[in-house]
Amino acid sequence: MPGEKSSELFPVVDLSGNVIGKATRGECHDSRSMLLHPVVHLHVFTPGREALLLQKRSTTKIIQPGKWDTAVGGHVDYGESVAEALLRETREELGVDASTATAVGRYVWESSVERELVNIFEMEADPERFSTAFDPEEVEAVRFWPVEEIKVAFGKEILTPNLEKELQKVYPEIFNL
Q: What does the alpha-carbon distance between residue 118 and residue 52 come to, in Å, rounded to a whole number?
């Protein structure tokens, strides 16, 4: 229910990720407060980094509905660590264990609605042996995209702007355009 989600509590953090307060989802996403709150993203590459797993956001999502995005993306709940949030979000969104994921970076993403401290993780998976049980309320589809296909999709309103910026920032050796 939208009302229930808007009252979820998120930590408010400084640029280093230290918790300095708390606020509801509604307060963090009100387009006025711009309270910095942490999120997690997971990139799942094939061996050799030839392809990347992406999720198509549900068309019922408020932010970037129907666009392709990171394999997993979600908020850190108040009282939860970033690592705990990654494991929870990966289970909830894909039905996958992300315990082998490693941290690869952090940056601030700001949209017209919110300001997020994005904690980026990555892991490797063999697409022949990788299966998901994604949540259809959150995710419309998932598939491995060849890197070249992702590059072609840049700037065409297929991918979320956040994903495009993130891939170029974190993986310039792969996604240099």
A: 18
